[in-house]
Batch of 2 targets.
Target 1
Amino acid sequence: MNQRKISASMMCSNLVDLAKTIDIFQQKKIERLHIDVMDGAFVPNFGLGVDYIRGLRDLTDIPLDIHLMITDPEYKLQHIGIKETDIVSVHYESTYQVQRVLDRLRSYGCKCFLAINPATPIYVLEEVLDYLDGINLLMVNPGFAGQKIVPSTLKKAEKLQNFLREHNKEDIALEVDGNITPENAAKLKMCGANIFVAGTSSIFRGTVDDYAANIDVLRAAIK
């Protein structure tokens, strides 16, 4: 996963323009569609669900990047409809059984990512690095689009890059999620980020007619 990729945050898309949006994403070769699944318990919001995921798969072959912001995900994975082509992120903070949920997630053949909130220290990753294909580093507190980046997360991304290097785990992908403006993306690529979750701060700015140009700007920033 060394090539830098865009994962389009679908909670930011307008359902009225969904088909046109997907068409633009296919033309612009967007690598992933980021699906925020929220249960109203782990985060104070309700997000995209199983039916949305199923319908989206009927619209496009773009692989999904499923971000589970739900409590006790180990007991709910079977309802998601996970495919081998998916990235699936579970939150360290969402369960007391982090190793168990990662073990169960790996049985689906997907890429296994662990998400951590801005205030969660990096050292919690150490004992589960062998289970991970990637880390989803939250740059905002999860639950709502349109937030400003937590300033300390920029330094945290740099610390995480060093942490992975020290543990000989530089092959683990680093995804960054939350207020990924082109400017922030340019900083984060220098910290080893290679998957950029793009929402209202970048590709979803303006109307659907602006999306293609917005994607070009973000591509240039992460080049």
Note: Helices lie at 18-27, 50-59, 98-106, 152-166, 182-189, 211-222.
Target 2
Amino acid sequence: MAKRTLTAVIERFAVRGSFVIARGAKTHVDVVVVTVREGDAAGRGEGTAVYYRGESAASVLAAVDGVTSAVADGATRADLLDLLPAGAARNAVDAALWDLAAKTSGVPVWRTLGLPQPKPLLTALTLSVGDPDTMYAAAAAVAGRELLKVKLAGDGDGSADLARVAAVRRGAPDARLIVDANEAWGGLDIERLAAALAGLRVDLIEQPVPAGEDHHLDHIRSAVPLCADESVHDRASLDAVVGRYRFINVKLDKAGGLTEAHALIHAARQRGIGVMTGCMLATSLGIAPAFFAAMQGEYADLDAPLLIDDRPGGLLFAGSDVWPPEHDLWG
């Protein structure tokens, strides 16, 4: 086997307008891009720091640098599960190794995973949180989209969030809706809010309570299925959400790569839990591996490249769908 080398750099991409959620606004995203070379072939991967877990682009880069020698000596994707914790660093290296294997063997990632021939996937489009009038206008501008994800704020008793969703429903009367509280509904009457959202034809409520406070959902009867995001990262954190959420949001940066995400999806299925595949803010290079996780779930939320100034040669988005990555991009 030819000698491997690993290099990693931080790249910055501007957010189109601003991306606003309950925790604040972002105007740019820094991603860590890993390249693993072997002979004439090169595999690439991208990771975005999971900021609510204390990661930064600098800490992710440092963690990647810490496994450079191991990867050069032939460390595998399975080895990474022991070499690095779940997080963006492991995701970036894992993705680079998947891509390298596909390019050196000629066997695409989907076939290695035992998946069917990839087809375009329906993906959600995210609407940032704002006042109802602003959110109505944003929804009306994309009313032809089939699936919208609505960011909420958790202010007051939740009535303001209901007004936001009602405004989105008026602006996009035919769209399916997911709402994302981003942990901001702690202490609120979730049963009341869920019942009202059911009347607005909402499909899914994402992460209503802060991570670690999921026990507050133990006696909740929600009229809309609940989906865990910040409360579940990888297989080690899955059991804590069983019985409290009907879905989990699988993100490769949280799970630490496609290798762990694929195993997490299988474990969720065994427990009767549905799957949404989501993402941090990322370019098409970061989203490409997530496409193959999303093929295995009920919901895909892979719109990050539409929210930033994406890299050239990125994923194709047409109508409400995202298309499989081309060979030159990844996998």
Note: Residues 4-108 form a domain with the Enolase-like; domain 1 fold (CATH 3.30.390.10).
